[in-house]
Amino acid sequence: MQYISQLFSKTAGVAVTFGRDESQTDVTNFAQAKNLSLVNMQQEHAGAFAIVDNKQQQIYEHVDALITKTPGVFLTVKAADCLPILCYHPSGVIAVIHAGRAGTTKQITRRTLVALKEQFGISENLKIWFGPRICTECYQIDKKTNKHYDLVAENRKQVEAVFSDLQAEIVTSEYCTACDNDQWYSYRTEGKGVPMNWFGVGLFT
Ligand SMILES: [Zn+2]
Fold this sequence. Notes:
By secondary structure, this protein is of the alpha/beta class. Helix content is 20%, strand content 33%. The protein has a single domain (12-203), classed as CNF1/YfiH-like putative cysteine hydrolases (4-Layer Sandwich). The protein has five helices and 14 strands. The strands form three sheets. Strands 1-2-14-7-3-5 form a six-stranded mixed beta sheet, with helices on one face. The radius of gyration is 16 Å and the shape is globular. The two termini are 22 Å apart. Zinc ion binds next to loops.
């Protein structure tokens, strides 16, 4: 487990990663130790998000992003090659996004950020973290034409469609799940049934 130090002032909350050799049990234990309610998503590569407005421990179905301004909640996203995104705003709003190629095509990131802007009144000082994902070089989507897909660039475009550089700061993890497969699980590298890397963000009460 590693803290993502760029996202938070020390007292506000936590943003963390759980990589290879860590499991959902470690995520559950961490949330418990920090007195946060664990909130998961089923994740189906869709374009829908949900707003979490209570402190119940629960699993959201049919969504690939979550937003909350409820302190004491630990929002999580799991991925093994897809791009995990965590967001934090100093007014006390956090979000997680699961952005694979399908979800990216369905504009999951843009939709979630529009909600942050329009429903939560965020107009500046948003911090966005792009986590470990498969890099462009490793992510060939068509063998014949040798076409590659860049998850970071495509999702950066969706951020820029909603917020300017001055309004939102993006911090991008240096890791590729395939290049750095010793530290992160990778579906493309390891195949079906591979465990997931977990990423979480929570605000203290
Ligand atoms: Zn790579």
